[in-house]
């Protein structure tokens, strides 16, 4: 469902993107080319800051927002998901937040008030908040990262993890193409 927010902003979705009919996009949301937005995802840009302003939620080209993902922002802060990025099932991205290009965010992960650098992998059931994860970092499953000390214990992304991330992104681009072909069928 595509709908306006109370400020009157309506999502802008690229023609080549696929938004599952059960997903909800509300407000100042921009969805790029070949993006896949899965069942029951909620992307909601509807809160304003103290002066009544609102930054957008931006989903970059060739990215995928999988089943049950929630993307929202506090007080009109910006959320940006880079190109070729995968946000896996039931994750929460709560702004302010910036997720770089070619990033993989694993199942049930929570990102809040943080930045995740290009090429990074944050595995399943992790929490990243109030910090800046540099490019090409690998955050293991069930990690809680919220300081430079936490980041000092993190390893660089391995070739296997990077390859997995690329495969997930490409698989979802192919899904977009398949769903676009059948979207008007009953």
Automatic annotation (TrEMBL):
Alphabetized Gene3D superfamilies for the sequence: Hexapeptide repeat proteins (2.160.10.10)
Coiled coil region boundaries: none
Pfam families, sorted: Hexapep, Hexapep_2
Homology family: Belongs to the gamma-class carbonic anhydrase family.
Name used for this protein in its record: Carbonate dehydratase
């Amino acid at each position: 469902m595509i709908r306006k927010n109370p400020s009157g902003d309506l999502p802008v979705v690229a023609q080549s993107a696929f938004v599952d009919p059960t997903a909800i996009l509300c407000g100042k949301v921009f969805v790029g080319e070949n993006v896949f937005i899965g069942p029951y995802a909620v992307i909601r840009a509807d809160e304003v800051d103290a002066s009544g302003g609102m930054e957008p939620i931006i989903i970059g080209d060739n990215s995928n927002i999988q089943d049950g993902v929630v993307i929202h922002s506090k007080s009109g802060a910006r959320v940006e998901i880079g190109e070729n990025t995968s946000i896996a099932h039931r994750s929460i991205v709560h702004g302010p937040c910036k997720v770089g290009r070619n990033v993989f965010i694993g199942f049930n992960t929570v990102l809040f008030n943080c930045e995740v650098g290009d090429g990074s992998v944050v595995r399943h059931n992790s929490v990243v908040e109030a910090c800046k994860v540099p490019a090409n970092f690998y955050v293991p499953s069930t990690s809680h990262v919220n300081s430079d000390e936490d980041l000092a214990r993190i390893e660089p992304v391995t070739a296997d993890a990077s390859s997995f991330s690329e495969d997930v992104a490409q698989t979802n681009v192919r899904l977009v193409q398949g769903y676009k072909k059948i979207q008007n069928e009953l």
